[in-house]
Amino acid sequence: MTAEDLARVTDAYAAGSGPVAVDAERASGYRYGQRAYLVQLRRAGAGTALVDPVACPDLSALDAALAGTEWVLHAASQDLPCLREIGMRPTRLFDTELAGRLAGFARVGLGAMVENVLGYALEKGHSAVDWSTRPLPEPWLRYAALDVELLVDLRDALEEELARQGKLEWAQEEFAAIAAAPAPPPRKDPWRRTSGMHKVRRRRQMAVVRELWQARDEVARKRDVSPGKVLSDAAIVEAALALPANARALGALPGFGQRAGRKQLDQWQAAVERARALPDEELPQQSQATNGPPPPRSWADKDPAAAARLAAARAAVTQHAEELNLPQENLLTPDTVRRLCWEPPAEATTEAVSGALRALGAREWQIGQTAGLLRVALTASA
Fold first, then answer.
1. Class of 3-180 per CATH?
2. What is the dihedral of CA 112, 116, 122, 128, to 10 degrees?
3. Which class does domain 190-282 fall in?
4. Is beta strand 47-51 parallel, antiparallel or unpaired with respect to 36-44?
5. Do residues 174 and 95 touch, judged by C-beta distance below 8 A?
6. C-beta separation of 305 from 381 below 8 A
7. If you compute the radius of gyration of the chain from its CA atoms, what whole number of angstroms results?
């Protein structure tokens, strides 16, 4: 794709009408990070366009051409970060996955939704391919184009269903919140999310995980490959548990011996040695410091009254979510319920509970549906 091609697409979409269907393909599992390697769009009057953000990494002109237009995405929170990186930031959106959840659909994947709502079967088979491949094979491009082919039709059908159920305004609040949400800050201590981390008990072992994770991340970033292709999480955990004394011992562990050269083993062993050499006061703590309540499993010992409030509140929210035919976490997030129950308002009036929920980020429709029942739960368990 050339700059001239992008300019033609931009002009066509500026002249189009109605919502624009948008999707993005990443190369998760193949490349470092979550950048977009293909952007698909469809709009009435403009047709379908497949845009290559590798050849044209700045799509801000296309974004400007769509100013004020409603974007239709499926699972918007997955695609918005990589779209923002290339200059595409919707101010209005309709998320068909979230709409499906609010409408009570059991299966909300795009294929299932299109089949259940519209009666069409989408082509399958290329969702997990390496989208950084160039040139992209024709079957992959056809598959990608189909992802936006029916998205606006699905949006219209779901809007009608949400209106029928009296949930359309709820959905619109949710969509507005997604569009307005700032980019999330970098995750603190991402190495703690290493798969199998639950096996690592001692702080010295945790330091090995941290050093190996950081060394792997640096290599993966330089090579632009998925970290898992450099060294598996399972191998990192094995090294942490074994604390090998030298590269030879490290090479005997699962995940290190296969195709690992001496230089690589020395690199990983150096990370292990850095963890071994750390003074005790510089070892990572067993758990991250948080600004929220402790894990609920400890509430009964720490604060039995809070544990009783949480049990009553969870039961009330779960029951009401079932009555509304939507997932409990969409009615009110579990974290919001926990925080409210750990530090409830001094006086558990409906107004006070509403204010507390609002401060915790709940939407107005969620507050309207849950403040009263949470007031009852907080006072009944007192």
1. alpha beta
2. 0
3. mainly alpha
4. antiparallel
5. yes
6. yes
7. 25
